[in-house]
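hey so i finally got around to running both of the ones u sent me last week. sorry it took forever, my laptop kept dying halfway thru and i had to restart like 3 times lol. anyway pasting them below in the order u listed, first the sequence line then the structure token line for each. didnt double check formatting much so if smth looks off just lmk and ill redo it

first one:
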Amino acid sequence: MVKQKENSVHSRFMKTISVDQQVMESMQTSDGSNLWHRSFEQPVLLVFLRHFGCTFCREALADIAKIKDKIESSGIKIIFVHMTEDKIAERYFQRYELPGAVHISDPTCSFYAKFGLVKGNFTQLFGLQSWIRGFQSAIVEGNGVGYKQVGDGFQMPGVFVVHEGKIKDAFIHKLSHDRPDYEQLVMNCCEVRN
């Protein structure tokens, strides 16, 4: 069951969301564990990606690759959720210098829904701002243009910090091109080792 309410302390993107233990235990990770157990070992930055053909998904992978060592050395584990089979996902993680990334396959997007992530509408996915940001990301920043859709093209992404079975903070994308500050997100909610 997902419970959402606006949290007035944070920006319009932040929500308080509750996902039950059974759901988190069913989220099997590529390394043989599950989200519930991993969140008791250490805080988890749980990144729900758009489909791998999306420029903004590739942008997210590139952004996280740049800060992965810093985040994980501070005691936070990054786990990705994607919409394809593991072998395909692992090729993308390799391409974006994230070898050995821990991930969860969700081709039916059921975990996306359990975390309150919705299907995008036309404006969220294809509005003018998305085209402008898409050009910036694809061409200027070199993330490329996605021609092949690998997953549900309408599924919106989101990022959650999960610790001890509870969602401590979240960034819920309002538009497909929103760009979370991953470092700030984990710093806002977790006591991080330096």
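and the second one:
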Amino acid sequence: MKKPDTITKKIIYPALSLFLICLVSVLLLALTNELTKDQIEKNNRGNEVTQREVVFPGAKSYRELQSHVECIDKDGNVIGYIFVTQGKGYGGDITVMTGINTSGIITGVEVLSHTETSSYGGVAISSGLTDEYKDKEASIFVKGRNIDGWTGATRTTNGVIAAVNDAVIRYNTLKERGESADASQQ
């Protein structure tokens, strides 16, 4: 039988030490998260505003509404809409910004954020996965029919397609209601 001192030295002290290290680490991570969450949110919001010019380059100003952003020309006319939507990828949610003009043509698609792997999904996103949507009619996209995918990044492709399709559905809902800049503010 082992002596109580040996059990304490070989099992209890190391276990207690690991527990304390983990506890301190978790507390420090929680504190860091709390201290930086406002700045992270501010940076993400700034990224979204900057990306508007990429997905709808012809707009002179933007009007934020509850479900979308209206793109306004120099004369104050609505020339299109921007939608921020999400789809599920391999690594989690993919947040996508889609611009659609009033004629129903996609003016641009950009991925705002994702947690895809750097080997397949991340490479597909950074290598132009969203470029093929530009100048296409805003209709429901089906991989292999009216949009191509990326081999090895199937879930990422499907997530982006789902997000763009959600934007198309939202656009069609606005169009069916006949909403314009004036009607959507009432």
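quick thing i noticed on the 2nd:
Confidence is low (pLDDT under 50) at residues 181-186.
anyway thats it, ttyl
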